[in-house]
Amino acid sequence: MPATDHNQGSFLNRISIRRSQFAAVDHIHDQEVVDLDLFQRHVSDRFSLLLSPSTTTTTTTTTTDSHETHHTHPPPPPQILSISWLRNLLDAFLCCEAEFKAVLVSGRDPAQFSRPPLDRLVPDLLERSVKALDVCNAVTHGVDIVQHWHKLAQIAVTSLSQNPVGEGQVRRAKKALTTLLTLMVSDDNKENNATTTTTNNAHATKWADRTRSFSRRGAAAATTTNNKERPTGKNLRSLSWSVSKSWSAAKQIQTMSANLVAPRGAESTGLAQPVYIMNTLIVFITWALVAAIPCQERNGLPTHFQNIPRNLGWAQPLIGLQEKIGEEWKKKEKKGTAGLLEELKEMEKVANSLLEFADGFEFPMEEEKAAGMAVKVAEMGEICRRMEEGLGPLNQQVREVFHRIVKSRAEVLDVLDHIQVCKHSAPLPY
Amino acid sequence: MEKAHNSFNKNGHIPTSPRNIPPPAVSFNDDASDNHLHHYTADEANRISEDVDRFISVISAIDDKSSSSLPEVPDFIKTYSEIIESRITRSRKNVAGGDDDELFFIESVRRISRLTNALSEFSSDARANPPLNQTSVALQRAMVFLEEEFRSLLEDSTSEWDPQNAHNIQKFSSFNSKSQQEYSDRCAAQREIDTAHSVEYPAYSPEDVDKMHEIATTMISAGYETECCQVYYISRRNAIRNQMTKLELEVLLNMDDVVKMPWETLETEIARWINVVKTCSETIFPGEKRLGEWVFNDHPEIRRSLISNILRAVVIQLLDFAEATSMAKRSADKLFRYLDMYDALQKLIASISGESYSDELTAEVTAAVDRIGESAVCIFCDLENSIKSDAAKVPVPGGAVHPLTRYMMNYLKYTCEYKDTLESIFAKHTEPDKKYTPPPPTTTTTASLSSNDLERESDSPHNFETVASTTPFSMQVVMVMDLLDANLEQKSRLYKDPSLRCVFLMNNGRYILQKVKGSPEIRQVMGDIWCRRRSTVVRQYHKNYQRETWNRVLQCLSHDGLLVNGKANKPLLKERFKIFTNTFDEIHRTQSAWMVSDEQLQSELRISVSAVVIPAYRSFVGRFRQYLDSGKQADKYIKYQPEDIETLIEGLFEGNITSMARRKT
Fold first, then answer.
1. Cβ count within 10 A of residue A119
2. Is A169–B140 a contact, with Cβ atoms under 8 angstroms apart?
3. Which of A344, B44, B177, B351 is the most exposed place for a label (fewest CB within 10 A)?
4. Where in the sequence does UniProt note compositional bias of the Polar residues kind (chain B) (predicted)?
């Protein structure tokens, strides 16, 4: 991700140059205040872009493309909770994280880590970041599942884009779409019985039940048509979760957001503030990822993961985002749709209308109907394109966040170990 | 394919062979949609197939596909579609048709797919659409059927792969020599089992694999690649998962839990994990690659992406555990398990690379390997600090081998058994310019040896130039060895008695030397010159001991001044005998409590003491006994006969005084 590298690189350069300029001078404390201030401003800036993307004016577009020389508009800002938006979110997080580490570690006397407030705050942060790793893993797996769904939608697009669209093509698309819609429900909900179902057969039975009682458009359509091509428990397969069965994304987020308290009084101007910011960011991005991407056991995901004090300047965009996503989540829980990921929402909608077309299909198709379907197929094609382009990089970015957290944790632990070694090293167990 | 030999006349009209519509043979009472179909005999079906082939050739050969150049579509196209549908219906009702029938079916599906493709080129011609609609339905039904076949073939592996001992999870306790040995034995045994079974995974009969290959090829050529790959991908992933569960090798731990796990539990989990990784790299991954290569033989690109996706999901999960483990708190004990993990991951890399399935994946594993390597280096380098800070306040009774020496030497011995691994880790994770600086050639290391004791300065055992190799790892081992020496030197100062100090240093020096000589791996690191010099130093301690303890004894046995003009100075003589007896008794009492557990060293010491003391005593007694008045007086002053002395010397260094706190060491 060149964007990330670029931002990060330039930022770190600034920091190091600034540090080297001032390190000699005895203004370390002043410098720290400046750094903290800068950090908070950067957090605020980055998340403001995510909240109101319309303000992205700095985006430059290449004007070399001959077709667009006359009208060069910046690309439309990504819709909140879309794949591109999530990628920007992770980018923002990675930038903030790098900056935070610079603020926390570089140029600091390691002894400070063994004194309040860092002696308490840093271990707390490390623990929270380990929990975030499990969320990253669950999300990685969730993206795998979305990729599987995407393939099904792609089948429908390929099939219905053929000319002419015959009964065979429609049946093929219908099969894929029905499976897609069924899986969207069962994949997202199978965590509920994940503890009781271990084998494929058991899963299959449950899914078959689910499919039968499945009230939404897709299954209803499926039951009315040729039952040979209806996905049933027998041939409906999905990926099993790759995390331990008792693990719950919702609970993990709850645990992570517990005892996340804003620093008060004198602490609020010191190092406690950036540590609190980092904690909040970790919880925020994991919460947003879990909301957007199917994960094991999302039921009960808090709509508000915490009350960030409204007087904190840097927190305003985060508060805004939290409210927006929280609202969306409430809607999702009410409707029982598949996930907050924009592309999934659209996919579910388009899949349903395509199924409608398929149900009313008669060969040969009337032109008007064909045109209507072509529009929907194009829409689905566009969603698939966005997924095709975005899911792989998103997954890589989630891994990058994972690796970054691991690495930072190691770096901080090294500093802590160093203090301990100075005091007393581990005795040899003879 | 046969060239379009034109059996059609110029205006594109296809003559229908009178045999084309055969009389109904067996009538099948199929379900609603099929009940009008008839069962065709094999011959009839073959004839129709030939007709279809001919038709495909003809229309494929037409250059201009836009206009109404399509010849009239003959009726047998419809019939052919119906034959396929009826075949599917029969299969669904489990009317077995035999292998020939299956082959015919696959060929028919390919034919109808070719036909559909050929016809669709004329899609602008309205006349093409009704038959196209018909063939597309037949094709779709055939594909759904094949997809189901494919899935059930994939899911019904005939025999379950179940190596007897694969679930026999290794358990081993914390580092100690015994469990370490058992552990490596077990690993070797495990490896044999794994290799023996590796050919049987995944357990499909060759016929089934052939069928899968046929189905995959047919589906892909008909444009159903996505369906085919999805079925394969999901089936294989779930199969691997089930396999792991069955072997109790599933790694489903949260990072959070692993980081908090107590070491004993984690160690068991690591052993289990190593088994999983081994099973993956020796059995499951090669098996998956083989299966993929068979099934997708004709489609290398599809195969590559499928296999790499399947492996990726498993590998990432395995790596997460490794990452979590490397985040746990480090301690000396953990080194060996980390090295085991490192080795296991190296093999995993080998098993996933090969055909460059996924560079990204290899990079992920490499990153994890590096992190574990770094942890291992840190742990090994932390030994420096641990040794430096190992300060005892109480000396080990009897000057015996210090537990630190035992621990460190055993530790180094096992470390050096991982020499190749460590060499590569150190080469990678230490800065090449990190220069080893030996501890200042101080007095600390050679304090108890006077400057004359060592013939030359370079004979110091702490001389860095003496070691055989100078890789970063061997330098680190030498440094640890030097620190151990320095630490022992420090500990030796806890002994007030200089003789005992020498015994202590001798004991420990000897132990170190024996350990190095006994392990080809450390010996290789330290080198023969080091061993020789180390022997010299131990000998020097021996000499020092002899001097410290026995010089004063020999002094009493000096003949000087006892005979004055041929007459014995009796009081002095008596005094000398008395002093000798007392001194010897005192030495015997003290030093039989001292501990030299190395039998050879013990006997060398006794022999050397005997060699010095007994001749001197024998000669002293022989010469002066006559000057003592009577036998009675002689007995009073001469408590020991030379033979008694010999026996008593044999009792030295037994460590056998009960008043001393006994230690197993």
1. 13
2. yes
3. B177
4. 1-10
Q: B469 falls in which pLDDT band (50, 70, 90)? A: low
Residue B382 — φ and ψ, nearest 5°? Answer: -65, -20
**Under an 8 A CB cutoff, do B386 and A426 touch?**
yes
Residue labelled with tokens 């033979």: B643
Distance, C-alpha B107 to centroid of its chain:
49
Query: Residue B262: how many CA atoms within 13 Å on its side-chain side?
Result: 4
What pLDDT is attached to residue A60?
Answer: 41
Radius of gyration of chain A from Cα atoms?
25
Provide CB contacts within 8 A for B549, sequence distance 6+.
B499, B587, B591
User: Which one is predicted more confidently, A296 or B540?
Assistant: B540
Query: Where in chain B do CATH 1.10.357 domains reside?
Result: 375-434+469-548
Decide which of A28 and A201 is more confident. A28
Selecting from B132, B254, B332 the residue whose C-beta is nearest the C-beta of A134 gives B254
- Summarize pLDDT for A156-207 with one digit per residue, the tens: 999 999 888 899 999 999 999 999 999 988 776 654 433 333 333 334 333 3
Are the C-beta atoms of residues A146 and A303 closer than 8 Å to each other? no
B371 in reach of chain A (CB within 8 A): yes
- Whether A113 contacts A415, CB under 8 Å: yes
> CATH fold of B555-659, please?
Monooxygenase (1.20.1280)
What one-letter code names the amino acid at A354?
A: L
DSSP string covering B38-81? EEPPHHHHHHHHHHHHHHHHHHHH-S--SSS-PPPPPTHHHHHH
Strand B38-39 and strand B26-27: pairing? antiparallel
Higher pLDDT, B262 or B170: B262
Helices of type H across A238-302 = 249-257, 272-292
Give dist(CA B584, CA B620) in Å, integer.
15
**Which residues of A are less than 8 Å from B134 in CB distance?**
166
Q: How far apart are CA A81 and CA B125, in angstroms?
A: 46
Tally the domains of chain A: 1
Q: Do B137 and A426 touch (CB under 8 A)?
A: no
Q: Which residues pair with B563 in a beta bridge?
A: B568
Nearest-CA distance A311 → chain B (Å) = 33
Is A73 within a domain?
no
Helix (H, G, I), strand (E, B) or coil at B563: strand
Using a CB–CB cutoff of 8 Å, tell me whether B141 touches chain A: yes
Does residue A165 belong to any structural domain of this protein? yes
Whether A334 maps to a domain, the answer reads yes
Preferred mutation among B135, B254, B404 to probe A, highest tally of A CBs within 10 A: B254
The reported pTM is: 0.78
Task: Print the SS3 string covering B241-281.
Answer: HHHHHHCCCCCCCCHHHHHHCCHHHHHHHHHHHHHHHHHHH
ipTM: 0.80
Compute the mean pLDDT over every residue in chain B, rounded to the nearest whole number: 79
| Cα gap B189→B196, rounded to integer Å | 11
Note whether B234 and A203 are within 8 A (CB): no
Domain that residue A416 falls in: 79-425
Residue B345 has φ and ψ, to the nearest 5°, of -70, -35
The per-residue pLDDT for range B309-320, each reduced to its tens digit, is 899 888 988 888
Q: Give me Rg for the CA atoms of chain B.
A: 44
Smallest CA–CA distance, residue A55 to chain B, in Å, is 36
Residue A231 falls inside a structural domain: yes
Domain B375-434+469-548 is in which class?
Answer: mainly alpha
Q: What angle do CA B627, B630, B636 make, to 5 degrees?
A: 90
Element (H, E) at B645: helix B642-650
Return the amino acid letter for B48.
I
Nearest Cα residue to A284 out of A266, A267, A263, A260: A260
Taken in order B70, B71, B74, B80, the sign of the CA dihedral is negative
Q: pLDDT by residue (tens digit) across B176-185? A: 434 444 445 5
Are A192 and B163 in contact by the 8 Å Cβ rule? The answer is no
